Amino acid sequence: MDKVAAANKINTFLQAVVTHGGLRLKYRIIVDPPLPENRDWEKPEILVDFSGPDSPLLLDRGGELLRALELLALEMLHLASGEHEKVCFDCQNRRSLRIQELRAAADVAAEKVRKTGTPYHFSPMSSRERRIVHLALRDEADLHTESEGEGSNRCLVVYPKDYKGAAGKPAPRTLP
């Protein structure tokens, strides 16, 4: 991916969205942004950081509009799914806060699995969020994680290391 060309395409796209959408937003596009130490769970090559009076619109409903804009940009750039982590949209440090939440949730899930000996099923989440939980628990020798399900129902499950379901396989996810 030519990062500068991709950043220019994102800029053209966002100028149109902000202008024609009447949004009171500013954004910075940073190629090869500096990242905090020990941040191996996310290393974007292009970071788009939003601010402005309409920031709450981007963050409403769990950041739905922010994620939608990011997805549209990824589609516009024709990036393969394995390259999606190269582009990251953020607003008011939401992404860092969400990563902290996911890492805390991973710790809670690990403790529950250790105490009960049964798998812990997270709610469906994006591939990026599942990856953060997988990485948060990768050094836990007594546990293992797997992604299960399809499409928007794909979730992460934390298992005790040697867990076997009734038929010798991990227990299936049960939906309410």
Give structural notes:
The chain is α+β, with helices and mostly antiparallel strands. It has 2 domains: 90 residues, GMP Synthetase, Chain A, domain 3 (2-Layer Sandwich), CATH 3.30.300; 62 residues, Ribosomal Protein S8, Chain: A, domain 1 (2-Layer Sandwich), CATH 3.30.1370.50. 43% of the residues lie in helices and 18% in strands. The chain is built from 4 helices and 6 strands, in the order αββαβαβαββ. Strands 1-2-3 form a 3-stranded mixed β-sheet, covered by helices on one side. Strand 2, helix 2 and strand 3 form a beta-alpha-beta unit. The chain is elongated, with a radius of gyration of 19 Å. The relative contact order is 0.11. The C terminus is likely disordered.
- Determine the CATH topology of the largest domain: GMP Synthetase, Chain A, domain 3
- Low-confidence spans: 166-176
Q: Give the topology string: H per helix, E per strand.
A: HEEHEHEHEE
Question: Judging from the principal axes of the Cα atoms, what is the shape?
Answer: elongated
CATH architecture call of the largest domain:
2-Layer Sandwich
Helix/strand-derived category reads: alpha+beta
**What does the radius of gyration come to?**
19 Å
Tell me the strand percentage band.
15-25%
Tally of strands: 6
The average pLDDT score comes to 86
What multimeric state do the chains show? single chain
Physical arrangement of strands within the biggest beta sheet: 1-2-3
Number of helices: 4
For this structure, what is the CATH class of the largest domain? Answer: Alpha Beta
